[in-house]
Structure formats: structure tokens, C-alpha cells
Design brief:
This protein has 3 helices and 3 strands, in the order βααββα. The protein is of the alpha+beta class.
């Protein structure tokens, strides 16, 4: 499992980092772990699946 930081997810999805943190807080994008600063980290496969789903539903 490859973990992605909030910044990497934001870049992959093309959205601001604050939105990624909100998605995690609202459990719309599930965090797999937390880094040493308490920020969420995400499984790369989960991010890809979320991106596909979001595009099917009308975009991010």
C-alpha cells in the first residue's frame, strides 16, 4: 500500500489541500493513517477510486 500525503492527493485530484482535509474529516475520502503531525495519509488506490467515482458523479 502506497500512502499519499494531503498535498499529493490535492495535486492528483486538482483541488486545494483544505478540501482534501475536509473530505477526510467528513469521511468521504477515508484516511489510511496519520503522519507524525496528525495529518491524514491516503492509500493511492483509494484516491484513484475516489477520483473515478467523483468524475462519474459530475466532477470534483
Amino acid at each position: 500500500m502506497a500512502l499519499m500525503t494531503v498535498a499529493e492527493v490535492a495535486q492528483e485530484l486538482g483541488i486545494p489541500e483544505t478540501r482534501v482535509e475536509r473530505l477526510a474529516r467528513e469521511n468521504l475520502l477515508m484516511a489510511s493513517a496519520k503522519d507524525k503531525d496528525g495529518k491524514p495519509e491516503f492509500d493511492a488506490e483509494d484516491v484513484k477510486r475516489y477520483k473515478v467515482l467523483a468524475e462519474r458523479l459530475g466532477g470534483l
